[in-house]
Specification:
This protein has eight helices and six strands, in the order H-E-E-H-E-H-H-E-H-E-H-E-H-H. The protein has about 280 residues and is of the alpha+beta class. It has a four-stranded antiparallel beta sheet with strand order 3-4-6-5. The protein has a two-stranded antiparallel ribbon with strand order 1-2. Helix 3 packs across helix 4.
């Protein structure tokens, strides 16, 4: 009895420890399950509705999908306005349209946006600031197209030609008609990396209905503050070679964007006037 009395408390303590260990194991299992569930919810949950993205479809609609985080802004963004006039041959003023093809030796350093899309790294900080400020105004802008390779532009153009051919146009007629809404490969500003198509989250159709959205009204009013212009304005199609696109914005820098806005000219008109002015006043 003495030995049983001596070791009975030890057995009871061991039993309590085993029960305590089982409780800890159960709690650990529950914790792991809760963490796994939280991780699964995070992965499957949709991203912020106002995030910039592009599906890259060759249709006239931008389709949303989940996106990774945006890269951080560079610490030093430089002066908001150039201290000196922008040189005529500046990268910001490179003209690309149906009469001026992309230079054969053109190259660009790209920075990745959401969903793998890219823009020229030199315009990225201003683009991101513009998108952030538009969202801060309570709006939901979406980038649905940005930099395109030659191959991508060829695919988009050929798809348009094929659709028009299927509607009964001859191959030559289809190419002529397609060029009115899709730039011929080698003549698209998207190949510069300085152009983006931006739509409203509640209207993702690339048509003139974009003009009436709150997003486009905000962008048309404020884009110049960030160095962008509405590249293909209304009533300028004969000059630009592209029909009215109230979603296509081109980066030209803050100084030039302000000049274009105040003059009411399209980019082609502005560059011609600038060239004539500089020729008449070479020391200006």
């Amino acid at each position: 009895m003495y030995r049983r009395k001596k070791f009975a408390p030890a057995r009871r303590c061991a039993g309590r420890r085993r029960r305590g260990n089982r409780v800890l194991e159960d709690l650990l299992s529950i914790t792991i399950l809760l963490c796994s569930a939280a991780l699964l919810i995070t992965v499957l949950a949709p991203w912020e509705e106002g995030s910039a993205y592009s599906a890259g479809q060759d249709t006239d609609v931008c389709w949303p999908e989940p996106l990774p985080a945006e890269p951080p802004l560079p610490a030093d963004r430089g002066e908001p306005f150039p201290a000196e006039p922008v040189p005529v041959d500046s990268w910001q003023l490179l003209l690309v349209n149906r009469w001026h093809s992309l230079p054969e030796d053109y190259s660009v350093q790209l920075v990745e946006l959401r969903n793998g899309f890219q823009v020229d790294e030199r315009c990225y900080p201003d683009l991101q600031e513009m998108m952030d400020d538009c969202r801060a105004a309570g709006l939901s802008p979406l980038i649905c197209s940005s930099y395109r390779t030659q191959e991508k532009q060829e695919q988009l153009f050929q798809n348009k030609v094929d659709r028009l051919t299927a509607q009964g146009l001859s191959p030559e007629e289809a190419r002529t008609e397609a060029a009115k809404s899709v730039a011929v490969p080698g003549t698209s500003e998207h190949q510069l990396g300085l152009a983006v198509d931006i739509v409203a989250a509640d209207n993702q159709n690339l048509d003139q209905s974009q003009e009436t959205t709150a997003v486009q009204r905000w962008l048309m009013e404020h884009c110049w503050e960030y160095g962008f212009i509405l590249r293909y304005p209304n009533d300028k199609s004969e000059i630009t070679g592209i029909g009215y696109e109230p979603w296509h914005y081109r980066y030209v820098g803050a100084e030039v964007a302000l000049d274009v806005r105040e003059s009411g000219l399209c980019f082609e008109e502005y560059l011609l006037l600038r060239e004539e002015t500089l020729a008449a006043n070479p020391e200006a």
